[in-house]
Design a protein that fits this description.
heterodimer; A: 456 residues; alpha+beta; Cytochrome Bc1 Complex, Chain A, domain 1; six-stranded mixed β-sheet; 11 strands; 17% strand; B: alpha+beta; 2 domains; globular
Chain lengths: 456, 482
Amino acid sequence: MRMFAPRALRIGLVAAASFVAAALSTSSSFAAAKIQRLVSPGGIEAWFVPDATVPLIAMEYAFGGGASQDPADKSGLGHMVANLLDEGSADLDSKTYHERLDRRAIELSFNATRDYFRGSLRMLKEHRTEAFDLLRTALTKPRFEANDIERVRAQLLSTLRRESTNPNSIAGRKFLELAFGDHPYGRQASGTLASIPTIAAADLRSYAGHVLARDTLKIAVVGDIDAASLGVLLDQTFGGLPAKAELVAVPDVVAAKPPQRVFVALDVPQTTVTFGGPGIKRADPDFMAGYVVNHILGGGTLSSRLYHEVREKRGLAYSVYEALLWMEHSALFIGSTGTRADRAADTVAAIDQEIRRIAEQGPTQQELDEAKSYLKGSQMLALDTSSKLASALLQYQLDNLPIDYIEKRNAIVDAVTLDDAKRAAKRLWANGLLTVVVGRAAQAAAEPVSTPPRAN
Amino acid sequence: MTAASGGDPRPGLGISSPRKFVQRRGASLIAAALLAVAAVALPKPAAAQTVTSDPPASFTLGNGLQVVVIPDRRTPVVTQMIWYKVGSADETPGKSGLAHFLEHLMFKGTANHPAGEFTQTVLRIGGNENAFTSTDYTGYFQRVPRDQLGVMMGFEADRMTGLILKDENVLPERDVVLEEFNMRVANNPDARLTEQIMAALYLNHPYGRPVIGWHQEIEKLGREDALAFYKRFYAPNNATLVIAGDVDAKDVRPMAEKIYGAIPPQPSIAPRRIRPQEPTPAGPRTVTLADPRVEQNAIRRYYLVPSAVTAAAGESAALDVLAQLMGNGANSYLYRALVIDHPLAVSAGASYQGTAVDDTYFMVAATPKPGVEFSQIEQVIDGVVADIEANAVRAEDLERVKTQLIAEAIYAQDNQATLARWYGAALTVGLSVEDIRAWPDRIRAVTSDQVRAAAQKWLTKNRSVTGYLIKDTTAKLQEKRS
């Protein structure tokens, strides 16, 4: 799960978190005013930005369902499908299929997230016919041959074994269990050591047959191609899929009520602290207020309150962040940090204190102004490559935002008042935290559950 | 699923592209070396490609600061990156981790701009910033709207010489770095194995020291150490400034001259870095890292090989091709041999890190299936190497890997930050703009004989260290709590 990847704050590029819907400011980028709603002759819709600066084409697309469609005892099914679709299809076995991709440097991958089955395709423009055709066969005629299944199964199990003693992975899994219990969101998209061995070829076929369909498909394309040619390729690629997906209904769910704390003993030098609670859904009128105030508390920059209090002032951690995460059927805020075992209690206390402070008092006007200024300005930076722009255009579609959202977004950010931010802060944080601590036992085990700040 | 890496082979930290694995979608490994930006033409059977980006401009100021400007007009954004030609391999013995510690401390303010002001300015305009340290360089960057370039240059020029450090800032930051060590190394058995392999591979050269430093030395670093290092190495004649984005070289030049041009050079800094070199390796070495938390064994072998700077003509490109051929993707020789044909491993890969001042390494890695002995894996690896040494590379294989490598240069043009990193890293280790631009041509020119010769010459056991990651099943030791 992406959200649990440790965020290296001073290393590499601090990219906007992948689940954050980013937009660019009006007429500010190569995307500006060029987003087209393309409908192919066969009725396949895509958001499309033609751009010939670099001779490549990037496509991002998603089907509804994702890991939420995994049966309860077969978590990881969608993930396994995603890892097998490029292992041979139609008359091409795995070796031949990969040769076709590699010979043309075509980049093709699939990924099952909680709510979506996603895919990426990137190619040099001259190889577009071959690239889209390889995608077509992967989606419509996957082979799921026994030896390929066993190879991929072994790879997935290897990763799960590795993660089984990784404090971040353990904390992430435990947090979702704590937040969502038996709901599909409480399960791991990548499956478990118990579930992966039980998945059979028939399960893979069934999943692909039910999930990969046209009615839930959303597509975004950026690159060096004209609309007419793209329309033809989209029809050829996706036109053969079933018209309607057969999805199991997923109920809405609210994450468990904080405060609650779980401790997992693991003999590691650095303790992982993962914390969070119920969030604000994307369609909620308070969403943007929550988004702005969350940026002030723990957004991915070198100036959030948590960064200042936990890292700069106290030197407790290298990385500390907190983010909003929204899903089709729920929402969370979630953060994480890592600290020395003997300072874990101090770290949890510092985070608790900051959560309580912002819930009770909200941000200052200056913090609000600066956050809005950042969020408005940062959008065009987030969309400076074809792949990033395509990902964002896909995300807007998944979030049911209008095609001119990019132009509207800054006004929505600007409209957030101090009262809105305070209200959202109280909603998010007044109850305190769900906290998962993974590390050596000296500390946390004996500690009382933190008292929630008073919500009044 | 294509070839996955064998563990986390990253040797250092915060190394943006060279001397580190670049992880692409789907966890396949690419040895990103020097990739070009302009005038890329694909070899047959691919049709010729015309690249519309302008070539980068390069000039040097009177005080020795080299400036490279890489245009990217799509978005009104600019990336400023300053690369200092100093990294962990330039530290005094006993002060490991100092280059990286100083990188952290560079955010603590100057007389003109107290702590936080630079960062706040970047954030107010919606920009982002960060920094990174490697064996050969330390870099700082900001990405901002293009009209803010002058402001960013002003801040960056100011902290080239104006840094002010106080214990109240330095000491908590040292704790932060120790937590970074815990996160990256102590908590991560793969990274601990890497430390051991590198220390064994480099008998004499400082590449054997971890970029983040040894724990017992990091915890003793202080304000005076950092300031002395800063004064010694941070100067315009020891830096490369890369500006990528929606800018014109003819506008950047007067700005750079005005803002950076006044900073005096440090004549004591030698134009070339002279470090202790490796003796001719005399025997294969092995390292075993046992940790109770290891649930998946891993094996990695590092060979000491020349870098793009130290290699003879054509050799570095041949090593790039060799790595791609052996270990990138589902059709690579190691993946086919170890994962497909004789399923002994769940993943296998290879990489070559060409961008380095001194001799670098070529790595092969595999993740064994449960119950498979390392010796079985090594036998297959040796067989793959022997086969390459003995036989001509199949023409279609050679063509395929060249196409993939050259395509990376086109894909890279989609990302100004990637281009800025490639140019910055390559120039900082001593390569030229022309070297970078000619890289696709050099890849295209690699012959089967050159690949074979590279394998024969460099992939010999005596030049190698093989590392094994295993579960520690002995009684639990009292581990020192860091």
